[in-house]
Design brief:
The protein has one domain. It is built from 8 helices and no strands. Keywords: Cell membrane, Membrane, Transmembrane, Transmembrane helix. InterPro entries: DedA_domain, VTT_dom. Pfam families: VTT_dom.
Length: 202
């Protein structure tokens, strides 16, 4: 998996990184915790331009967050809840997940957007209440970009620094990334098939 992702990023360049990070914010089984470190590693080996790769990852991440902001803004609270009840299982979202994100946003406001972008389980959902509550788009994008830059930059930097140690870790890195991805996919399938996102019957 390590070789596959790095080769794919090398072939697609910054566009591939942006696309993967956009999808990571929309479709849960694609983890930024794998994408950006591998993008950083690829940049360190000279396969990609470091600055362009980092910026591409940031753009993809912010674009994905904006999609959920627009979903919240256009649907509103009740219509969104109805949509989650019907279709949330495919994104492993439940009404309770959205309610928690709304509550956190209502308590912390803009700080929830900034810090939420650095928390894996919150990164996507925190954009939804910002749209529902009518946070200005410029303000939303500013806080989202700032928080995303820290998260994406840290992951990218970890992968970039890994290049110097590649000879020491190459024997186990590919199996580890395969294992991580396998666990993520299995967890996603488990949550889908157990009905995560369906409204509980009264």
């Amino acid at each position: 998996m390590f070789d596959f992702i790095t080769s794919w990023i090398a072939a697609g360049g910054a566009f591939a990184v942006a696309a993967l990070m956009f999808l990571e914010n929309v479709f849960p089984p694609i983890p930024s915790e794998l994408v950006m470190p591998l993008a950083g590693y690829n940049a360190a080996t000279g396969e990609a331009h470091p600055a362009l790769t980092l910026i591409a990852g940031l753009i993809g991440s912010v674009a994905g967050a904006w999609i959920w902001y627009e979903v919240g803004r256009r649907l509103g609270r009740e219509r969104l809840m109805d949509w989650v009840d019907r279709h949330g299982r495919w994104l492993t979202l439940s009404r309770e997940d959205v309610e928690k994100a709304l509550g956190w946003f209502e308590r912390h406001g803009a700080a929830a957007i900034f810090f939420g972008r650095m928390i894996p389980t919150v990164r996507t959902l925190i954009s939804v209440p910002a749209g529902i509550q009518g946070m200005g788009m410029v303000k939303f994008l500013a806080y989202t970009t700032a928080g995303s830059l820290i998260w994406v930059g840290a992951l990218f930097g970890a992968g970039y620094l890994l290049e110097a140690q590649y000879e020491r870790v190459q024997g186990w890195l590919n199996p580890v990334t395969n294992g991580i991805l396998g666990v993520i996919v299995l967890l996603y399938l488990w949550r889908v098939f157990r009905g995560k996102g369906r409204r509980k019957e009264s």
